[in-house]
What does this fold into?
Amino acid sequence: MIRPAVADDLSAIQGCAAAAYARYIPRIGRAPAPMTADFAEQIAAGLVHVATSPEGGLLGFIVFYPQDHAVLLENVAVQPASAGHGVGRALISFCEDQARRQGADRVVLYTNARMTENLTLYPRLGYRETDRRQQDGFDRVFFEKPLP
It folds into this structure.
């Protein structure tokens, strides 16, 4: 089930982000930007959705919001124990569906260039690379997916 995050989800979201992104710290040389996000503020603004198990445990989360005529997918993370079971894809599909409902013409996102798994994942999901540049001290790769 995917639902809007509530304040009581904060600790689980922070734990999920820490667990999902910890493996990238040695590659990047510091904590990736998603690990330091203000999740409490994002939850309060209605930007965070969570995927939960039938028992209610948090499997993953996604952060997205409108930006111009697009939706920016800012963060998607899955608990390592749930990785490879379609949770991330379900969250991204949910974001794309919400973007269509909001009248957006595309979903845009970026990832760190050292998160090499993402550089092959996003094209498989229909995203195309649009740019590479330094932003906020990180080497980022930008993608977009037009929405039919």
